[in-house]
Amino acid sequence: MSVTGFAGRRSLAAIAMLALLGACAADDVAAPGGTSTGAEITRSPLAAIADFLPGDFGGGGAAAPAVDDAAYAAEGVAGAMWLPSYSVPAPMRLVQDNGGDRTYSSPYGFDAAFDDGLLVGTRGLPDDLMGANVTQVAQAIRAGGGSAVRIHDRLDSLDRVVQERFDCEIVASGAEQIDLGGRMASLPRFTETCSSPTLVFENLYWLGANGEIAASRQFVTQTVAYLRFARF
Questions:
Q1: InterPro entries of this UniProt entry (predicted)?
Q2: Residue 114 has pLDDT above 80, yes or no
Q3: CA distance linking residue 167 with residue 63, whole number of Å
């Protein structure tokens, strides 16, 4: 699927991320979820999202960016989105909604596009996922598990778009208690293990009562590693 709705911007935050990437080599391998403070969202959006930090949802590296709480209060906080290898949780805003195709913006200076909760592209990162075909993955999740092929588009060292195919297995992993912005929920978890001749990664999905992906850990690119996402 092609990715639309991005502003195509490269902010100062993205430049700062480049420096941070050079200093950090950690990979995110722990599943989201785990311990929660159970705090209610009665403070500013950023303060509420900081409650994720005691559990596995927490990230390491950069401090949370400054957030205009008044702007977020006016526009609404859609959830949290962050790169756990390099940053802590930060609020995200919904900037485009075309049914199941949604684009969210992070105060870290990047946007991420999702198709029914599956990551299909990023903009504003030093190594973006330019696009992804995840049709078979969505079908396997709806079926309760199965095999799937996903195709990722990325840029090579000469800024040419190259495609990489991944063969994936999706399995149901039981229910798990996770914290969705101060609200505890027991949600079914799916694990997607994907491989190519040069790379292996593991995506995690937690499904809400309506079958939509409520929280996830999804692979971006080899440089960026994983993106975590939770809708409130």
A1: GfcB, YmcC_sf
A2: yes
A3: 36
